[in-house]
Amino acid sequence: MIRTMLRMRARQGCEPAVRSAWGTIAGRIGGLPGNLRHELLLDALDPRGFVVVTEWADEAALGAYREGPVAARLAELFRPLTEPAGPADYPVLREDGTGDSTVYVDVELTVPAPRLAEFHRGYPEVRARMAGIPGYRREQLLREPGSDVHHIFAEWNSAAEFLRWIADPAHASAQAGPIAPFLLDIRRRLFHVVPDGGGRRQPTTGREADVHRETDVLVVGAGPAGLTVAVELARRGIDCRVIDKLATPAGQADKAIGVHCRTMEIWEEQGVVREAMDAGIWLTGNMVFVNGVETHRMSWELPGLPYAHLGLPQYETERILTARLATLGVRPQRGAELVDFTQDDDGVTATVTTADGGTETVRARYLVGCDGAHSRVRELLGLTFTGGLGRFPQLFMLGDVDVDWDMPDGHLLRFLHETDGRMDGMLVCVPLRGERRYRIATLAPPRFFAQTGGQDAPPGFSAELGSPTLADVQAALDHLAPPGTRASNLRWSSVFRISHGIVDRYRDGRVFVVGDAAHLHPPAGGQGMNTGIQDAWNLAWKLGLAVRGLAAPGLLDSYETERRPEGEEIVGRAVRMAFTDELDREDLKRQFLQEMSMLLSYAGSPLVGETVSDPDALRDAPRPGDRAPDVDGLLRRGVGHPLRLRDLTRGTRHTLLLYADESADEAALRAIAELCADVRRQTAEEVDAYLLLSPDAAEPRLLAPPVLRDADGRFRAVYGVTGTGLYLIRPDGHVGFRGQPVDPDALRKHLRLVFGGAR
User: Fold this and answer.
1) Which among 264, 142, 288 is positioned nearest to 583, based on CA atoms?
2) What CATH number is given for 392-498 in this structure?
3) How does DSSP assign 589-651, residue by residue?
4) What number of CA atoms fall less than 13 Å from residue 258's CA on the CB side?
5) CATH for 609-754, among 2.60.40.10, 3.40.30.10, 3.90.980.10, 3.10.150.10?
6) Residue 251 and residue 318 in contact, taking contact as beta carbons nearer than 8 Å
7) What does pLDDT average to in each consecutive run of 10 residues of the chain (759 residues)?
8) 78 burial class (0-12, 13-18, 19+ CB within 10 angstroms)?
9) Strand order across the beta sheet in which 258-259 lies
10) Are 48 and 13 in contact (CB under 8 A)?
11) What CA–CA distance (Å, rounded) separates 409 from 436?
12) Which of the listed CATH numbers 1.20.140.10, 3.50.50.60, 3.90.550.10, 3.20.20.140 matches domain 214-283+303-387+502-595?
């Protein structure tokens, strides 16, 4: 891999113009053969300083860029906006090169915005301390625009001197001490200087030589599901590689919009919920009209929900998750397409073509197919859709327009037309961020079906059929929307065909399918993306244990056992909802909670269980397999504010919640402490344990587990426990096991279903 870094300084007042100029050319760079990365970084200490970073597959790709029109156009755009350039600050660099000459080290770290001032106070001192280190020359602090990600880019005399310094554990306190808290989760890359400056065209003889790579998990597809799998694996320290055949991410709102409440909880866990809320718009309710008459209206701002329903285009979701993945040291490899794979008892060998026309052989322990409706992984596995792949006979069109009407903000609007009780017209309008801006979906004009020659149009988006016009959108509004509604400013439109079905199995040996690769359904309810994220959320923690050798033999089987029934139910419900007015359910609130995945349960899974002496005692409490509800009001000594239960369960491990009230004697509390220690040994310390006490229980003198008090009795009220009891919460936030009273042997037996391989 080859990197170039072009440093420049904007003329006074031209900083916004520099960013704008970059925006006009960045997409063209990303579309060039062999481009792996293109980014405009900011000098974190100089508001007028910028660095253009490009990375290329090889010298030939770089040379073609330098000699081509895109590089010339970039120079033309920047020339009047920047100060005259001096000698090049940075040479052409190669990652994983050799030699004892000058090296450059790129340390990528995250500096949360609330702590930026703290970092900037400590950084100058660190830089001053480094000046005295043998072999160290200089460094530059860079920042990714609109992100908390920073780069310390440092130059050293040689790799040997850098590695000698980094190998000394004292360096962290001696030199990096003032910013040490920010260096706990970093990504480090080492670059060597390309001797001849690189970029010259090299003679080629057809296909590049094969490259052989190894990883723990190969993720095919960099959509929301694939990115979720990768983030969760990376959070657990599992090496993963993400490939996507698209050279650049999608930049238009042609896919999912609605983000469900449960997905927002997942994003809170992953640390991206704030970014999502900042970029999205709240969908506050829905209205349904049949033949021009409002049939019902419902508010989606229900009390007790942790999050409302968020409107966020999928390209924004992918941007946010990609940025989060980068903070964990993983970047999707774009323009890389899976061609074939084989598997054996120890792993999977995949053949991948790359953006430069070369071939890579990737050896992985597992492969996860998140490659969408036209999944290559599904095809290679020979998976079939149970009952066949269903297709709606109609063609539909989407459009992104401004709509002028008198409708409440934030509401999803459905307009249906029926003749003799049969639906013969539909229009769905989903609000987008921006004044009066909507995504509309409706039946496509007949001319598009005529263009198919009467043949079946393929599922998905059909670019070959052309794009609907603003007049097409207006005609749909004239037919179904309130009189006088006007559309304007058509930004994008497309024709698509709806398919629905679910594959016969989610797993084949060491290969899994996730999201649209496993199930397809109509967009009613916005289930596609959210269900795929739920698939990924369920699979990733199990896969992480398997890679580390801690999983019981049947743990990975539980992915299909738990997720396929949910997929079947969602596909069936979405098909039923596609052409109805949604009044076939009496309890609309429950229907909404179901759509938001807040009622999702794995109660039928063999991976969950309980031992309860009185079944009625926990009748209204969360059952094994249910989502574990959050509660607040927990007090912990030394903490000056109440805690939420999610503060305890947040993380990548299981959480064991033990409860005791005033009836528990000292012997029972000692037994709880011994049980916690035994559980940690049994699970290779993959279980965090806490003791929750009722308000009137005496606090024991225990070193472990940590003790919290259920000060207002909210945990007891929600979870129904009395005397002594326990709940085991899985990493995906679902109840794995519950017991009342505490039964140590039953808990140990259950843990063997999950951690059979732990030592």
Assistant:
1) 288
2) 3.30.70.2450
3) HHHHHHHTTTT-B-TT-TT-EEEES-GGGGTTSPPTTBB------EE-TT-SS-B-HHHHH-S
4) 27
5) 3.40.30.10
6) no
7) 90 87 86 88 91 89 88 87 73 74 87 86 84 86 88 87 73 68 77 71 39 90 97 95 88 74 96 95 93 90 91 91 93 94 95 88 96 93 82 80 94 91 87 90 83 57 70 95 94 82 95 95 73 97 96 96 91 68 62 87 95 88 96 95 96 96 89 92 94 91 88 95 95 97 95 80
8) buried
9) 258-259, 309-311, 281-283
10) no
11) 8
12) 3.50.50.60
Which amino acid, one-letter code, is at 622? P
User: Does the domain at residues 2-193 carry the CATH identifier 3.40.50.2300?
Assistant: no
Domain coordinates of the chain in residue numbers? 2-193, 214-283+303-387+502-595, 392-498, 609-754
456: its two tokens: 């079946």
Same fold yes or no, 214-283+303-387+502-595 and 609-754: no
Look at the block and give the residue holding tokens 């003749």: 419
Structure tokens at 683: 């699970």
| pTM for the model | 0.72
Token pair for 14 = 């031209």
